[in-house]
Write a structure and sequence with these properties.
- Helix 4 packs antiparallel against helix 5.
- The protein has ten helices and twelve strands.
- 32% of the residues lie in helices and 26% in strands.
- It has a six-stranded mixed β-sheet, sandwiched between helices.
């Protein structure tokens, strides 16, 4: 099953104070696919994600969800379709896993409605999907980084949205937990058709786990398309200022970027031996 919600940005200009971060950006997210936004530090990746989720109001342009401006939609209406997992979310002190995941049900509850069996079912399904059911009674602040990230994803799942935005979901995780989280997100995309948009730092993980890559530089989209189309030696050199080589990943069959530092270049004599 694939969701058909459309999310796009048109002529977006974003900034803070007098500083402009994003200027004239256009972006179309492919429904039912995984899109990763990549780029150098401070290029505007997280700023863009904040605007897509309506946390940041554009100076110019607009963000459209199913043709409607997100910044004009009622908050609960938007939250029933689009969920956001921010970078380094703040965990309420002492809250248990079950209580945190239950907060994801807030958009589905009216002013006078009470907790229902449907809410119980949604929370249980979210815990089961993220393999955190056995942690339900534990305080979130006692969990490991990987466990905590899975719990936050469970809360986003309990929100039961068709579009999920994640800002650097693998930050501060070791490589095994990074792969664990990205495998989970891929499972969600493939089994539920959830449209996923995430900001990632690791170009190779982004290439391996994404249907669409969006590379940002100087406040605009420099390249957008499949990993093979976007992750090129020239593109990485231009956007990141990094000498590199692109080879075929023997595991995934996708592009693999090898950074070349000034201490790792083979002498010409060694190449010809």
């Amino acid at each position: 099953m694939t969701t058909d919600h459309t999310l796009r940005a048109e002529g977006l200009q974003l900034g803070y104070g007098e500083r402009t971060v994003i200027d004239g950006l256009d972006l179309s997210v492919i429904p039912g696919q995984v899109t990763s936004i990549v780029g150098a530090n401070a290029c505007g990746k997280s700023t863009l994600l904040r605007s897509l989720s309506r946390l940041l109001t554009p100076r110019a342009g607009q963000v459209l969800l199913d043709g409607e401006q997100v910044h004009r939609m009622p908050a609960k209406q938007l939250a029933r379709t689009l969920g956001l997992l921010p970078q380094s979310p703040i965990t309420p002190e002492g809250i248990t896993v079950a209580d945190l995941v239950g907060r994801g049900r807030h958009p589905h509850q009216g002013i006078f409605s009470r907790w229902s069996t449907a809410d119980d079912a949604a929370v249980a399904a979210a815990l089961d999907t993220t393999h955190t059911a056995e942690l339900a009674d534990r305080p979130v602040d006692e969990l490991s980084g990987g466990q905590r990230q899975r719990v936050w994803i469970a809360m986003a799942l309990a929100q039961d949205t068709d579009v999920l935005l994640l800002d650097e979901p693998t930050t501060f995780l070791d490589v095994s937990h990074q792969v664990e989280v990205l495998d989970l997100l891929t499972d969600l995309n493939r089994s539920r058709g959830i449209t996923i948009v995430m900001v990632l730092h690791d170009l190779n993980l982004a290439a391996r786990y994404s249907d669409q890559l969006v590379m940002i530089a100087d406040g605009t989209v420099r390249a957008s398309g499949s990993p093979a189309e976007v992750l090129t030696e020239d593109g990485v050199r231009e956007v990141f200022g990094l000498t590199n080589r692109i080879i075929m990943d023997p595991v995934s069959g996708l592009p693999l970027m090898l950074p070349i530092g000034r201490h790792h270049v083979q002498p010409a004599s060694a190449v010809h031996e």
